[in-house]
Design brief:
Number of helices: 7
CATH superfamily: Gcn5-related N-acetyltransferase (GNAT)
Protein name: L-amino acid N-acyltransferase YncA
Pfam families: Acetyltransf_1
Radius of gyration: 16 Å
Number of strands: 7
Keywords: Acyltransferase, Transferase
Largest sheet: 7 strands, mixed
Organism: Undibacterium pigrum
GO molecular function, one term: acyltransferase activity, transferring groups other than amino-acyl groups
Length: 199
């Protein structure tokens, strides 16, 4: 894994995604899935994932975002002109598990994981949704993804539920984490950033 210093993290900028970012976002998603979900999702499904297929879906999401007045938000993390990660969220039409908004995706290229960028992206999405009136946030994780589960637990997420779900014909298990008070999430991100800067 690439060693990333705090100074280099500061060189990563976050900005709102545009439709032109659909291909780069899709590439990050496919690379992240293929690296992360081995052993959780069948290899043949991961090996057959194509950037072109995911790009069409993300183009639709980004077009919808442009008309959603921050009820849908997607941010990309960029370094030296290259997109290295993205995060997205949305206000829920109706509360789920008592949560008003959902963090729908957080993905980073493997070499950039565990560098603090994921926390920054989560905070950016949460702030946008908070400005839309959300005071709570839900996120879903595949049960076996211990790295993601630890990430959300470190940010103060409470385990709400574990349940079966179906994805593209695959029967999987997922867990839902939530923050009933977004100020807890913000404080956790800030505390972790302060701790990192002291090392």
């Amino acid at each position: 894994m690439t060693d990333i210093t705090v100074s280099s993290i500061k060189e990563v900028s976050l900005r709102r995604a545009t439709v032109d970012d659909a291909e780069a976002i899709a590439a990050v998603r496919v690379e992240s899935w293929q690296a992360t979900y081995r052993g959780m999702i069948p290899d043949n499904y991961l090996d057959e994932m194509r950037v072109e297929d995911s790009m069409l879906q993300w183009r639709q999401i980004l077009q919808a975002m442009a008309q959603a007045e921050d009820r849908i938000c997607v941010y990309v993390a960029e370094s030296e002109g290259h997109i290295i990660g993205f995060a997205s969220g949305m206000m829920l039409p109706e509360p789920k598990l008592g949560m008003q908004a959902e963090l729908t995706a957080v993905y980073l290229r493997p070499a950039w994981q565990r560098s603090g960028i994921g926390r920054r992206m989560v905070q950016k999405v949460a702030r946008t949704l908070q400005a839309q009136g959300a005071d709570s946030l839900l996120v879903w994780v595949i049960s076996g993804n211990s790295i993601a589960r630890n990430f959300y637990e470190e940010l103060g997420g409470a385990l709400l539920i574990e349940q079966a779900f179906s994805w593209d014909g695959m029967d999987l298990m997922e867990v839902g984490y939530g923050w009933r008070d977004l100020s807890v999430l913000m404080a956790s991100v800030n505390a972790m950033r302060t701790s990192a800067s002291l090392h």
